[in-house]
Queue: 3 jobs
Job 1
Amino acid sequence: DIQMTQSPASLSASLGETVTIECLASEDIYSNLAWYQQKPGKSPQLLIYYANSLNDGVPSRFSGSGSGTQYSLKINSLQSEDVSIYFCQQNYDSPPTFGGGTKLELK
Amino acid sequence: EVQLVESGGGLVQPGRSLKLSCAASGFTFSDYNMAWVRQAPKKGLEWVATIIYDGSRTYYRDSVKGRFTISRDNAKSTLYLQMDSLRSEDTATYYCATVSTEGMGYWGQGVMVTVSS
């Protein structure tokens, strides 16, 4: 199985700040990488697919980048509603596997 | 509006069975591959099983193979997960989700399954 390693596990940032979350795959996943946002008490929601494509309705302050084994999610101008847990997921190979998650809190 | 509504969760003893359902609406259910994903309390997401749009193929994570069965009824726009021989480590919130090459685009609200004596 492809292992997905996310960092950091937790992150504290101020309103208006820019934050970056990293995701490392154990092998090349050819940009078949999705990012999900899970707000407290809610189900996950797809933010970004194919590493850098924004899902419908997702604010433009979110962006994704990367290739090969290394990927990142960037949030510009952090808003209070961005407090969530963020997960990466590879869907290049079966089984689909998720990163361990990054808990984003406000400082 | 796309809706996925899970049901059938609850408290069950180890070794017993439970069947989850996921009722879909707002999209053409028979066009989509579907999956179950679970999340143990305070833990990350774990894929459980996937079924192809027409039900012709199914896939399972190793730890549930032979115990869980994913199925679907396209006429009823409903996805199922039959869970047998349940273990304490199966305790989690179970989500159903649509699956495409882009990822898991729509998720249900989740249903809690607790396996305990």
Job 2
Amino acid sequence: AQSVSQHNHHVILSEAASLELGCNYSYGGTVNLFWYVQYPGQHLQLLLKYFSGDPLVKGIKGFEAEFIKSKFSFNLRKPSVQWSDTAEYFCAVNAHNAGNMLTFGGGTRLMVKP
Amino acid sequence: DAEITQSPRHKITETGRQVTLACHQTWNHNNMFWYRQDLGHGLRLIHYSYGVQDTNKGEVSDGYSVSRSNTEDLPLTLESAASSQTSVYFCASSEAPSDEQFFGPGTRLTVL
């Protein structure tokens, strides 16, 4: 069965620091990749997605992610975080020819100190 | 604007009781999903539906059931609630099975 790993469970940064959150998946076929964000007390919202084409994907609020097929990775980055980025971040993978179900990583809780 | 709503937003129930959580979407999406969110596990798929009268089991379907009688609604039923089912439940929908999913606000369920 496919799996999605987010190795950083908790990250604490100061404002203006750079952010990189890791995401690795196990499925070897064609995949659609997503990063969702969940602000405190709110539902999940899409940050960005990759289906095909340029492996560097830009999303909302200055976030970007890079798909590296050879490493089965889709890491999320932001050059300068803000206090308002405090949230939980989830990587998710949809594997074609594997039921088209979305598999989520365990999430990374980001706290940005003002 | 199209949206997904869930009700109730909070529910406390007792072990053994039947509980139904409602999910209603106005996106006119064929694909609907139920997840539970637990600390350290991310979101895990309970059941999903690709259209009216279609239902499928997800990763953690034991103790749960769904029915799909129309496009807009996918209620989730806990036949006999257990303390292990205390969780936050999210409903989602998508235009295509592999596409972006839109999530509801969640229902926090506590089983005592």
Job 3
Amino acid sequence: GENVEQHPSTLSVQEGDSAVIKCTYSDSASNYFPWYKQELGKGPQLIIDIRSNVGEKKDQRIAVTLNKTAKHFSLHITETQPEDSAVYFCAVSREAYQLIWGAGTKLIIKP
Amino acid sequence: DTGVSQNPRHKITKRGQNVTFRCDPISEHNRLYWYRQTLGQGPEFLTYFQNEAQLEKSRLLSDRFSAERPKGSFSTLEIQRTEQGDSAMYLCASDFLGGNSPLHFGNGTRLTVT
């Protein structure tokens, strides 16, 4: 079955710097790659997603890049702010209920 | 706010008791999902409904767990004879089949079994 690895498990960056989180997956048939942000005591919230017919997608300070050949995708956050501190999860699927999740990255923004 | 709503937010119960959680999905969504999340882990899929039909159940879902969505709107998740290992965050999510709709999560019910 599908296996998703997410790195790093913890990432600490200075406010204003960029943060990059990477996920690799094993099933070449996977075609949907969302990223979720989870704050303490809340459910995961979708921040950006990409489908396999697109290589890159950007939404203001957040971007996702997908390399289907290498089977990895990355979340890029530029100009980080304190409110970006949270746990970020990548996920992979062919159907929404089949989302396979990474283990999460705790992002810490240092003031 | 028309997001996914879950109640209660927190539940503390003694081992062996039954508990029931409720989820109200986004109104136009026809698919509803239950996930379980333990500390430091991503959500684990438990089951999902398309309208009122329960279409998939994870092997994680023991026979002490039952979920219903009787009218294709809200859903309930019941855990019978709770065990300490059931302590977790139970998350509900919904989306719309056919519209490339992303999965929207509620804020979960945190269950503590003492």
